[in-house]
Amino acid sequence: MQATAAIVIFVCAYVLIASEKVHRTAVALGGAGLMLLLHVTDAHGAFFSAESGIDWNVIFLLLGMMVIVSVLRRTGVFEYVAIWAAKRARGRPYRLMVMLIVLTASASALLDNVTTVLLIAPVTFLVCERLALAPEPYLIAEVMASNIGGTATLVGDPPNIIIASRGGLSFNDFLVHLAPLIVVLIVVFCLLCRRLFRSAFRYDPDLAAEIMELEEREAITDRRLLAQGLGVLAIVIAAFVLHPVLHYEPSVVALLGAGLLVAATKVTTEEALSEVEWSTLVFFAGLFVMVGGLVETGVIGDVSRAAADATEGRLGLAAMVLLWASAALSAIVDNIPYVATMSPIVADLVQQHPGGDGHVLWWALALGADLGGNATAIGASANVVVLGIAARNGTPISFWRFTRYGLVVTFVTVALSTPYLWLRYL
């Protein structure tokens, strides 16, 4: 009965979010409220459970990085980077997109993808404004690049951290096994964007000439604040990368960095918090509770086990089913709770194949969950964040517009991952 209620609530909420007739934050809060009202989950499960509750690490990581970005925005550094990027691209729209894709994917391999898009999005709005370009295609391309690039390392995408912990995998394991494929996927993605967003590449030679005459250093308005902000950001990034050594969660690092920056600079608390995407944070909280209801009632676990049982112990078939099933399910639910639910099942399957052969299942899970997050607007945390930023800046991206491109990108990248896994491991 409760499983049925959880499915009905989640499906109805998903339809409302996709229809965009009701604000997604209101839908998420309403769905979460119904889950609690009908005892599908309870206060402990919603707020304190590591398996089915709100992922406070994600919430506070976002909050801390939003505060840091808010302070940095006041220095003019984003205008500097925007002018620099436009000049290096010589005002050519497609060349600019490729540059932003490569920059985003590279940064996402060292940072988590949510942090990366928080830093890149302000630059995108500014450079598109300078060149009179619609920012939506660039934002969509960047968030997809962040999800692809983040797959390459242990710290690049939150699901990878869960997989590494459960599977006993190291930072170097991800680099050796996934990074070569991700490089290929980024190249293919750049070529694919040429086709997907071809109508957005309108070159204006006059605007390009104006850009080339600008001096990016003049955009910096507060050098002291910039030095302080970049110093704190560098420490935060270093702590992210050194997580396996320091053992500080990214959320703790981000909050400490935000607190230090506000305390050490002339920026007031009110100013630092004024640009926080509160509606996005609340949407995440509601979404986590709804997905947690599916976890609590065993719906996601049942679906995952059914896919695993269908393989009948055949490693090759198990890897392929896991890859494509993970991509499909991560398109519907956030990939963080999905991987948290699926990882114990994969661990059992890996133990059935001694000698290290079963590790291909971990790579199949990582690729499916991370790349599948591109399929829909709520498939990955970075997607939700970018849509929230776009709406705040007056250029909303609809659920279906994102999903129309996301389904194509997901299918192509997962399809290319299939022969990679098969030929290298099977």
Helical segment count: 22
What profile does the largest beta sheet have?
Answer: none
Structural class: mainly alpha
> Which geometry do the CA atoms define?
globular
Order of helix and strand elements from N to C terminus: HHHHHHHHHHHHHHHHHHHHHH
Average pLDDT for all residues: 87
| Strands, count | 0
> Which stretches are low in confidence, meaning pLDDT under 50 for 5 or more residues running?
none
How far from one another are the termini?
42 Å
What share of residues is helical? over 70%
Rounded to the nearest angstrom, the radius of gyration is: 21 Å
What does this structure look like?
- The protein is mainly α and 426 residues long.
- The protein is 76% helix and 0% strand.
- It contains 22 helices and no strands.
- The chain has helices at 2-19, 24-37, 43-47, 56-73, 77-88, 93-110, 113-130, 135-150, 158-167, 171-196, 205-213, 223-241, 243-246, 250-264, 269-273, 278-296, 299-309, 315-332, 335-351, 360-372, 381-392, 399-425.
- The two termini are 42 Å apart.
- One of its GO terms (molecular function) is arsenite transmembrane transporter activity.
- One of its GO terms (cellular component) is plasma membrane.
- InterPro entries: Arsenical_pump_ArsB, Cit_transptr-like_dom, Diverse_Ion_Transporter.
